[in-house]
Design goal:
Elements: H1 9-29, H2 35-52, H3 65-89, H4 102-105, E1 122-124, H5 127-139, E2 144-149, H6 154-163, H7 167-172, E3 177-182, H8 188-197, E4 205-209, E5 221-222, H9 227-238
Helix pairs in contact: 1-2, 2-3
């Protein structure tokens, strides 16, 4: 008597678990696919789920409270799924805030349109690339920050989302030449650069070069660092 009776609700439960399994699969894929691909996958899952939940259907007057709630959640999923696709198409990388940096960038010539909302790194692939960029920065009298990044690195994405996007960090890094070594492929060239040449354990790892082009080894960073601590670290490096 305590067990619920079989009915259409069981199909709903199966559908919910099915969507949950697909969500887990996307979470696993986020470690190895580019952020834009992950956003498209999330957007597609949310939109398809919303359609199944009746987000595009008109409710009858006799609809129950549960049916109204179900459709309401579907509408939210639909809206967020569309935002995911728009963010991916506009170059967004954040699944939590898919339009991060997109709205501000469309200032239409106003002062707000020129605000820096994210750090812009120049990609390098080899020691030769690094030496060339550091030499150019040295001639210009600028310090250099080198960030080792990989698409499959969860902590790298946390650095991008919580640290590199922080306005105080962006302000502190003004005047720096920002380089990023993408070691997603984890091939021989990546290992030679990351582990062979610099003896760094893996991404995320960050190195700093002063205005003369010399690396300051005491300021190397490995792993995640909060924005406030990162700003303090930069200040110490600049002293």
């Amino acid at each position: 008597k305590l067990l619920p009776r079989a009915g259409s609700w069981m199909d709903t439960v199966k559908a919910v678990f099915g969507v949950g399994m697909l969500a887990v699969a996307i979470i696993m894929l986020e470690r190895i696919v580019p952020p834009a691909v992950a956003m498209v996958l999330w957007g597609a899952l949310l939109i398809i789920s919303a359609i199944y939940m009746g987000a595009l259907q008109q409710l009858s007057i006799e609809a129950s409270g549960w049916q109204r709630l179900w459709r309401g959640v579907g509408v939210v999923f639909l809206a967020y799924g569309v935002l995911m696709l728009v963010g991916a198409a506009a170059g967004g990388k954040d699944t939590v805030q898919p339009l991060r940096g997109v709205l501000i960038g469309g200032g239409g010539g106003s002062g707000a349109g020129t605000l820096t909302t994210e750090l812009h790194f120049k990609r390098i692939k080899s020691v030769t690339d690094l030496e060339r960029e550091v030499a150019a920065a040295s001639r210009a009298g600028k310090p250099v920050m080198l960030d080792f990044y990989a698409d499959w690195c969860v902590t790298c994405k946390e650095m991008e989302r919580y640290t590199f996007s922080d306005p105080t960090v962006i302000k502190a890094l003004e005047g720096f030449v920002l380089l990023q070594a993408d070691v997603t492929a984890d091939d021989a060239a990546d290992r030679a650069l990351l582990q062979g040449h610099f003896s760094m354990p893996g991404p995320p790892s960050i190195m700093f070069y002063d205005r003369t082009g010399q690396e300051q080894r005491p300021f190397r960073l490995v792993g995640f660092m909060e924005a406030n601590d990162f700003v303090a670290h930069i200040r110490r490096f600049q002293q």
